[in-house]
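Late entry, written up from scratch paper. The run itself happened at the end of the previous shift, but nothing got recorded in the book at the time, so transcribing now.
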Amino acid sequence: SWASMQGLALPATVWTPAPSQHAWRSRAKLAVGPAKCENPIPRCSVGLFEVGTRRVVAIPDCRAHHPAIAASLPALQAALDLFGVEPYCHENQEGESSNPGSLCHVQLTVERSSALVQLVLVWHAESPDEVPFLESLAASLWTCNGNGDMPWHSIWAHFRG
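Output as recorded:
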């Protein structure tokens, strides 16, 4: 390896098995796309791409997710619905663009010591100016839409135009 060629000693590899075959995933990067329903709410579907497509399928009961991720998804969905967040259209043809200010992805990472979730919102936008409700959305998430305990460690926004 490169390290051994440089005369560096590498620490021994230590493998730690997952405590269970379920609820082991402490980080989830999920796509956000248009919901597949006739009702205006929910507008966003938060989940994974359907096999062979760029359609987003919600996975609210994913058994691999850490319980803190599973518990935070309803609060996230409620806030997205409350503010009418525009989902990114991943199915657009090459060269087509989704609306500026639409939400592309979310990443949820559990801080193991507290079981709180770091939330990263990835926006199809150059700057916060294209997401005028962002501060209100974050404030609503922090208070869990006024409905209970806050699951968040921190909330971040990332902009990629």
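The chain has a mean pLDDT of 85.
(Scratch paper discarded after transcription.)
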